[in-house]
Amino acid sequence: MSGSRVVFTRQGFWNGVRVSLPMVPAMAPFGLIVGVLAEARGLSLLETVLMSALVFAGTSQLVALELWADPAPILGATLAALVINLRLAPMGAALAPWLDKLRGFRLWGTLATLVDNSFAVAIADQRAGGKDAALLLGLGLTFWLFWMIATGLGHAFSGLFALPPGHPIFFASVATLIALMVPLWRGKSELMPWAVAAIAAVTASHLLGLGQPWPVLVGAILGAAAGAWRDQPR
After folding, report:
1. Which of 44, 92, 177, 227 is the most buried (most CB within 10 A)?
2. Judgement on whether residues 171 and 220 belong to the same structural domain of the protein
3. Residues 42 and 142 in one domain
């Protein structure tokens, strides 16, 4: 077997499950919040879990629920979710050395469960020379399962959660994403695109007064553009 060949093994899948488990508790606060908000907007428990299963994008779900009204603004919520999830396109491109070798459920199951956390772990493994693409599916399916459980629990026990907006538990998901950025750091060359993305998002939010999802999109596009400019041949 060639050293450059991408594989998809049962061991790689279970490695993904094992690596994802320590990160699952950090998903709980975010999932509980989405579940509580879904209940407050009038969604049933079944509708909440079904939304988490089909959308599986915490930020998109949160923004859509913030926009929720009666009648539901389907077009506006869909557009907001689309804008936020556009960041998944460059993630898929970065993972192309693995994804291009997959077919059928292996490909579509992996893409359907791709989120920021699984991308960060997988791209770090890929950069380190990893060849087992099943790692990504193991990560994604584990996060998907526990995300449905967390949002369902948030809906079912919404009356028990009365934490103030600034409670430290709400920072758990953000802290996890920050920690996941550590293995992505490849030296000082990363500073410029990361800084561009951060400054662009903060500018869009605080100086231009743009609401979600535009700061996320502006930061992602300008950060990616800065990274592409950095990587172009001199």
Report:
1. 227
2. no
3. yes
- pLDDT tens sequence across 181-190: 676 677 787 8
**Phi, psi for residue 132 in degrees, rounded to 5:** -95, 100
Residues 140 and 90 in one domain: yes
Q: Which three-class secondary structure state does DSSP give residue 4?
A: coil
pTM of the model: 0.71
Tell me if 4 is assigned to some domain.
no
pLDDT (tens digit per residue) in 190-203? 888 889 988 998 89
- Residues of 178-212 as b/e, b for ≥16 C-beta within 10 angstroms? eebeeeeeeeeeeeebbebbeebbeebbeeeeeeb
Amino acid identity, position 133: A
Out of 53-62, 96-105, 130-139, 153-162, least confident range: 153-162
Segments forming the whole domain that contains residue 119 = 10-184
DSSP one-letter string for 162-218: ---TT-GGGGHHHHHHHHHTGGG--SGGGHHHHHHHHHHHHIIIIIS---TTHHHHH
Task: Please give the tally of structural domains in the chain.
Answer: 2
